[in-house]
Amino acid sequence: MVTPDIHRVTRTPRKPRLTGLAPHLAALVQDTVGRGPQAEAIADLGTGRRLRYAGLWDEASRVAGGLLAAGVRPGGRVAIRLPNGADWCLAFLGVTLAGAIPIPVSRGSRRPRPSSSSATAGPRRCWTDSCPTGRPRPS
Fold it and tell me: Is residue 11 part of a domain?
């Protein structure tokens, strides 16, 4: 639910601007952790797994640490080819926390494969099974 006091649309002669928004997904989740760490963030109906915001932040931070340890660098592209569920959410947020660019890929797609050329738009890493984990990314 969006409340009017949080998000405002400011109209200029040329284009509307949204104000009061978090600069990126990680900042939004971090803010939510600060306001309600024990609130439920994810309920994975397929596996029954449930995560509260504090747990989501902790696990996604470990995913980011695992990605950084595996050589993913800020600005790098990481394909996520996981089934819908808690692991997909952790992967997406973990990639974002690592400063990389998440690229969601359909499970039915035969592509992408890691790109050999930095000039292409393809991902440098692709994962299809479980989330890599490591030491939490420094805050």
Answer: no
Q: Which domain holds residue 59?
A: 23-127
Backbone CA torsion sign across 83, 86, 87, 90: positive
Residue the block writes with tokens 């592509």: 111
Pairwise pLDDT comparison (133 vs 50), residue with the higher score = 50
pTM (predicted TM-score): 0.72
- Per the structure block, which two tokens stand in for 59? 């696990």
Find the helix or strand (DSSP H, E) in which 58 lies: helix 53-69
* Model pLDDT, residue 117: 38
Amino acid at position 66, single letter: G
CB 103 within 8 A of CB 92: no
Q: What are phi and psi of 114, to 5 degrees?
A: -55, 135
98 within 8 A of 124, measured Cβ to Cβ: no
Residue 9 lies in a domain: no
CATH of the domain at 52: 3.40.50.980
Q: Domain total for the chain?
A: 1
